[in-house]
Amino acid sequence: MRHLAVLAALLAVAAAGPRERRQANGDYQVCRAGAGVCVPYYLCSDDTVITDGTGIIDIRTGSECANFLDVCCTNPTGPVTPTPIPPFVSTCGTRNYNGIDVRIQGFEGNETQVAEFPWMTAVLKKEVVSSEEINLYLCGGSLIHPSIVLTAAHCVHNHAAGDLRVRLGEWDTQNEYEPYKHQDRDIASVVIHPGFNPGNLHNDYALLYLQTPAELSRNVDVICLDNDLTILNPQHDCLVTGWGKDRFGKKGVFQNVLKKIELPYVLPGQCQDALRTTRLSKLFILDPSFLCAGGEAGKDSCSGDGGSPLVCLDRTKTQYVQVGIVAWGIGCGTSNIPGVYANVLYGYNWIVNEADKLLAGPVVDYWNYQ
Ligand code: ARG
Q: Tens digit of pLDDT for each residue in 195-232?
């Protein structure tokens, strides 16, 4: 009886589409050495009234099921030989639109799904407080190679490599319930653009070389870089992600769950004109190492988003390419005043050359993402 009920439910779920959870090879994940299958918890029940759950559920901690809402249930079709989970294949700039394994419903704001932007990185400062080491959040960053994080120079130029750390694959900074764990990496060296000017933030580019490479996986992957200027076009779909404040000033609060905001790219002339209406005055000149995005009321990056990536969909609309790094703004989210970003296309040659030097010798074709 029980097996039939589970089988019927499995079939129903198989037909249901978006809720089904299968491996890439079309099979449900096998658990308990082939005796069970991982199914959503509501499919695994028993006719017997069980009041304490014994034998029915696998408590989430330590469960073999990759999906954190799944439980291991006796396989209705009998034991099978487990097939290995296919290895993860890295593709730069791949957004997990529906998160991984589970789409969280009911998000109305700008919260991202789990691992929606697997290149998103938190740049942390290690600090010892009463003989205990803690991580202080400094800035955002992006993984551009398994060993290299790109961030803003203004975030790290005052810090020694040994004091820095990056966290990859993070989503909710206050909890550890994500199905795939984050990866922390210490920093072996920091490379700041020689033209970086801490006063006006010209050339706000920095590379962090990780002591050990990231393990690329479903929640940790690289963003694409490109020097194709056609990506910068006001029609392109661009967005910025960050854990920064929701608004400017004392009342703004830092975000726990990674946020995203879609922004239009703003042409440099138009941006310079807009910025000339602010306290920067009408003599302000927008340096070519900057680019602008936003300018819609309430839609902007803000304090704490420094170093975070601004990305746009490429020509094929399948992969995201990083075009900017959050640098500065005049307040946050003011109508007609765009946010200012380090221009990653302008800095492309420096970034790629320095990255190749860090990787000791040119890595042929690594940066050509197609
Ligand atoms: N300088 C700020 C930081 O490092 C970023 C400010 C971005 N402001 C804006 N309006 N887009 O956190």
A: 999 999 999 999 999 999 999 999 999 999 998 888 88
Chain mean position to CA 25: 26
Same domain, 234 and 152: no
Residues 139 and 153 in one domain: yes
- The residues pairing with 217 across neighbouring beta strands, listed in sequence order, are 220
Q: Is 305 in the pocket of ligand 1 (CB under 6 A)?
A: yes
Phi/psi of residue 10, each to 5°? Answer: -60, -45
Residue 342 included in any domain: yes
Amino acid at 145: H
Shared domain for 234 and 171, answered yes or no, is no
241 shares a domain with 148? no
Helix, strand counts (H, E) of the chain? 4, 16
Burial bucket for residue 32 (CB in 10 Å: 0-12, 13-18, 19+): middle
pLDDT tens, position by position, 138-181: 999 999 999 999 999 999 999 999 999 999 998 887 777 666 88
Prediction pTM value: 0.77
C-beta 204 within 6 A of ligand 1: no
Q: Do 305 and 326 meet the contact criterion of CB atoms below 8 Å apart?
A: yes
Q: Which mutation among 265, 305, 308, 334 tests ligand 1's pocket best, with the greatest number of atoms within 8 A of CB?
A: 305
* Whole-angstrom distance, CA of residue 261 vs CA of residue 324: 14
Whether ligand 1 lies within 6 angstroms of the CB of 303 is answered as yes
The residue whose CA is least distant from atom 3 of ligand 1 is 306
Domain of 247 in residue numbering reads as 229-346
The CA distance from 339 to 296, in Å, is: 10
Count of structural domains, the chain: 3
Q: For residue 307, which atom of ligand 1 is closest to its CA?
A: 4
